[in-house]
Amino acid sequence: MLLSPFLTLTILLFFSSSSSSSSSSSSSSSSSVSAIYSTPTCSNIVPFKNRTDRISITDYGGVGDGRTLNTKAFREAVYRIEHLKRPGGTVLYVPQGVYVTESFNLTSHMTLYLAAGAVIKAQQDSRNWPLIAPLPSYGRGRELPGGRYISFIHGDGLTDVVITGENGTIDGQGDMWWNMWRKRTLKYTRPSLVEFVNSQDIIISNLIFKNSPFWNIHPVYCNNVVVRYVTILAPRDSPNTDGVDPDSSSNVCIEDSYISTGDDLVAVKSGWDEYGIAYGRPSSGITIRRLTGSSPFAGIAVGSETSGGVENVLAENINLFNMGVGIHIKTNKGRGGFIKNITVAHVYVENARQGIKIAGDVGGHPDEKYNPDALPVVKGITIRNVWGVKVNRAGLINGLKNSPFTDVCLSVINFHGMAGSRAPNWKCSDVSGFAYQVSPWPCSQLHSQEPGSCAI
What we know:
Belongs to the glycosyl hydrolase 28 family. The protein is mainly beta.
């Protein structure tokens, strides 16, 4: 797999700057190169497969003129892959050009490969867009009761699927959907750009995703998913265009990517209120590493739909610019479930409304059937090595009176406000934990602690 020029430069600069502080000026450039290949990664959870069998979308009548509708070509090509079942699977190659199509499904043991200059573009017409049942852990569409529009590129019950290429583009042309949302003329929940349901061994890499109608990349009820070397773009005012949303999924790796959208860059979820509690599938083993981005909402988020539980999340080496909130852990009464063992480390935040927010009063409910006494358990939240400049408020931690947040640990955190303004402050309630080398000093509920387990 090839790195994009942007990511190659970013990684080189990172290691060059890191080594300069600890190495002499005589250190050779080869040390930086070797450092790239020793960079920690979780991407090996899904081995990349080089498939020998290959077909082109043009073999099935695909025309990349930006006008011709290619739905038949994509669906026939996938049908061929599904039914011929070549050993090792098949590559569906999309050459340079703009291929307009309606939504289409993928199949197991295939690679969707976009060449340099290839664009798969969604048709802007909702009349023939297929509807599917709501996710059982949500009980209804996320936006509206009833079903939901299928994602532009969809996979259900699949194994061994790769979506990759040479920085080609998958364009959801979301304007039509955003305008319907703004005008309140939507009949059902908008489609995601790419969604995998009940699937495993998925790789999404080396592509540009832009203008999603709703969430961009949504693995739900999945296991072993890698999202790496991707760029995800949407206007800042585009509604609910989350970057990557691992949802009731395990072993998910998100690395080396740039995301600039209208909502959370990465949001870990696990179902909504009574439906998520009943479905009972947590998100676990989520790693987010070397992510850069911008959003009016959150950079790294957990929630607010966490009713199946979220545990064992690691986010590190994150660079955030022009943010609403840097790190946001969010839940609400009626959610139930748990959020535990969350670690966020080595984060740079520049120009943000708020640095850190951990709150128990965020997000609505699917209907009136939720149990307000179903209180979430939030414990074991570690946030360390965070540096923020131009941050209006340092942090807000609001636990629940009958379910306080516990074992919250903040260490080596510095937030600086706008030039000429007062220092950013903290506000807390119903929380217990520790703090070490935090500036400005957080709320009194977090006790001062010398270096130890909290500060590692």
